[in-house]
Amino acid sequence: MLLRWQQVEGAGITYPEGFVASGVRCGLKTQGEDLALLVSESASTVAGVFTTNRVQAACVQYSRRVVKNGSARAILVNAGNANACNGEQGDRDNRTLAEWVSRRLHLPPDAVMTASTGIIGHLLPMEKLEAGIEDAVAALDREGDTDALLARAIMTTDTFPKYGAFEADSDQWVAPIRFGGMCKGSGMIAPNMATMLAFVTTDARLPAALLQEAMNRAVAVSFNSVTVDGDTSTNDMCLIMASGMGEGEISRPGTAFEDFVDALTRLCVGLAKEVARDGEGATKLVEIVVRGAATEAGAHRIAKTIAESPLVKTALFGNDPNWGRLLMAAGRAGVPFDPNTIDVRIGDHLVCSQGGSIEFDRDGAHDYLTGREVQIVLDLNMGDEVATVWTCDYSYDYIKINAEYHT
Amino acid sequence: MLLRWQQVEGAGITYPEGFVASGVRCGLKTQGEDLALLVSESASTVAGVFTTNRVQAACVQYSRRVVKNGSARAILVNAGNANACNGEQGDRDNRTLAEWVSRRLHLPPDAVMTASTGIIGHLLPMEKLEAGIEDAVAALDREGDTDALLARAIMTTDTFPKYGAFEADSDQWVAPIRFGGMCKGSGMIAPNMATMLAFVTTDARLPAALLQEAMNRAVAVSFNSVTVDGDTSTNDMCLIMASGMGEGEISRPGTAFEDFVDALTRLCVGLAKEVARDGEGATKLVEIVVRGAATEAGAHRIAKTIAESPLVKTALFGNDPNWGRLLMAAGRAGVPFDPNTIDVRIGDHLVCSQGGSIEFDRDGAHDYLTGREVQIVLDLNMGDEVATVWTCDYSYDYIKINAEYHT
């Protein structure tokens, strides 16, 4: 079991041993840093999870192939241009970016992964990127402020950078393991499509297959349990690099590996919640818990349907303890349950019992919903399975951000 | 084939032979008529389509049972209270409404269907309804203004009444057949849940099984192809009564029946489009056509995913020809297709060709999108199947209507 889980204030993706990084401006966004480079000093084991959208950007198809090799040295991330729907020219440009990085860093050409986020259907301005890569290579560093700069360089409509670092220890490990991470995303939004990108590092040593399994399991209950608007980007990806430069080593499935998954999951859940908190126009972070379900998949589907219901999200913006909308959304999730056994809690307020109306403190529930973080729990009273999904409310600013942007 | 299809201005659900109706106020809504009664002078054949939500109002469960008998005499509709999530008391109250109507009209107790729309989780004010039913029975009529009054009496947040009447003729029929209909719905919205209710009449004579098949097919491409916000009410239903009082008769499947389905479908599509046009806060009616698909179900699923994408709907409000969001939404529909063969048209403007960016008249496309009715066509260029879905845009008023209401 995990003995210790200690956050390191101000640190991020370069906190684990073996990583340097830089964030620079190359002019893709109207202002601020827009190019991030993360380099592993050794050959890191890598794993990744990619968008399930049928329309996939060049970087998604390319980085998926690199991940299949199980090992890589660097990730180049640009914000401001998604390089999606650009046909063969987009594929060539993406490969060129990776080649430029590999040549300047004297790496094998297939050791560089790429990720892009921003406007769709516009070719990359390659001269700006060539100069930017030169600057980024020159600026590689492991200073305290690098991680914040890096997290800012991958932002699009995000209103704050999202990153964190932890040192964890387990009674099953030979040594503590460090974890770092950053992500971006606040919906599928302006300039044309924003994207959920997440990058995680660790200094543990473990085989690629185990790392991929750990990533899959952590993503399922973190990034894949966040929904802002139900829209899935063409560019979504989550990559992890394990440098093996620390003393921690996980060589096989078992309790040590389970603790690694546990630690990684905690990091990812923390980052994922920041994405929901920063949803476009969000006034609050909303945690939807469905418990007492027959299956975890069913619980997840109900929670996600509630979290994506426009009527639920507008009621949350209005601080309205409208349990009828919660039941309506649960009912259309396509999961069998008995409507007459559901209990609904908004914070500590039981607002619906056995599927029906009960007396409750309406003003108290309203006041609770005005908070910056709120929790809603549906208990189906059918089984023991639970799922949690994070989302935000729909405000006037959601419409403003998404309608007033013009391609 | 249909030879004639003639709209009758100002007429509605009582236009076919054999129906009388009334719309009265009984005090469930803050103002206006809120109780509608439709009575068939003969025993009508009936069919119905009901919400697939797991949480179903008392009237849905009750009316479904009446429909199973295949024959009924009346429909009582109240607006302002959904009588949903009210447990056994809700069931008892619903039965009492039907009994009051049957007693006053000297009908068998199981000849009355009920439909409710409005706030959830509040018991029906039965004294008001008892007086209202007495008024409604006394007011039964077939005057010209009855149909408009009736359509207003079933409204909740609708901004205009939705009704129509047609006389159709086919070379396969012995006589012309009349159709009348009304519906309500502008999303799943305040007071707590609004609902899509639709009621259709015809004076043709046909067996219940054929009527049900006709209704199923018409609903699939009309009411089930409309989406305002993807939310499905606990109270949705669509009922049809065929009085058999005209000279038209359809006794078996075949060309005469196909023409009946065609005529019924035209009526339902017309009514369904009014629901999308009146979506909460809508500034325009949007028709999404997906063609060139391998299967009709796939085309429908892609069209519906696009129509429900918050990012598409906000871009439409902003009059932005943002084809990237259309492709993104299509790609997450879970239907296989080749992203490199899609063409996208906004009105007459080809805005995306073979899945990529092309030059187009951006100002022209923007101006087109400012219209009150717009069409978007995605051609997958894979097969011959087509589906059409109607929706509306998301405006500031959508948020306002849904967030500022308090239960």
List keywords for this structure.
homodimer, 6-stranded mixed β-sheet, 33% helix, alpha+beta, 9-stranded mixed β-sheet, 407 residues, Ubiquitin-like (UB roll), 11 helices
Describe the structure.
Helices cover 33% and strands 27% of the residues of chain A. Chain A has helices spanning 58-69, 87-105, 126-138, 146-153, 208-220, 255-277, 296-308, 310-317, 323-331, 362-369, 396-404, and strands spanning 2-7, 19-24, 35-50, 71-81, 112-119, 162-170, 177-184, 197-202, 237-242, 285-293, 343-346, 349-353, 356-357, 373-379, 385-392. In chain A, α2 runs parallel beside α3 and α5 packs across α6 (255-277). Chain A is globular and about 70 Å long. Mean pLDDT of chain A is 91; it is low at 188-193. With 407 residues, the first copy, chain A, is of the alpha+beta class. In chain A, strands 1, 2, 3, 4, 5, 6, 7, 8 and 9 form a 9-stranded mixed β-sheet that branches. A 6-stranded mixed β-sheet of chain A has the order 13-12-11-14-10-15. Chain A is built from 11 helices and 15 strands. Chain A folds into 2 domains: 2-277, L-amino peptidase D-ALA esterase/amidase (4-Layer Sandwich); 285-404, Ubiquitin-like (UB roll). In chain A, β11 and β12 form a beta hairpin. Chains A and B meet through α8, α9, β13 and α11 of A and α8, α9, β13 and α11 of B.
